[in-house]
Amino acid sequence: RIIPIQILRIGNFFIIAAPNELTTMAGRRLRNAVRKILEEGNLVKPGQPIYVAISGLTNTYSSYTVTYE
User: 44: how many CB neighbours lie within 10 A of its CB?
Assistant: First the structure.
C-alpha cells in the first residue's frame, strides 16, 4: 500500500506531513534524512540553517513507524 506524504516549505522551514505516528528515534532519523537531502539539493542559501518539523497524523492514518531496534 502506498501512502502519500507532503513536504511544505516556508522559507528555510520545512514541515513533513506524514500520516503515521513516529517513535522518537524514527522521527529523528526521518528529520535528519530529509535535512540531509535538502542540504545536498541546495534549496536554501549556503550557511542558512534548515529547520525541519514533523506533523504526524495528517491526511489519513497508516499506524506506527518504529525503528528496527
Answer: 17
Largest CA distance in the chain: 39
Provide the H-helix boundaries in 1-69: 24-40
Grid cell 540553517 in the structure block, residue: 49
Compute the C-alpha angle 30/11/38, nearest 5°.
Answer: 35
- For the entire predicted model, the pTM comes to 0.87
| CB burial string 23-38: b at 16+ within 10 A, e below | eeebbeebbeebeeeb
pLDDT tens sequence across 15-68: 999 999 999 999 999 999 999 999 999 989 888 999 999 998 888 888 899 999
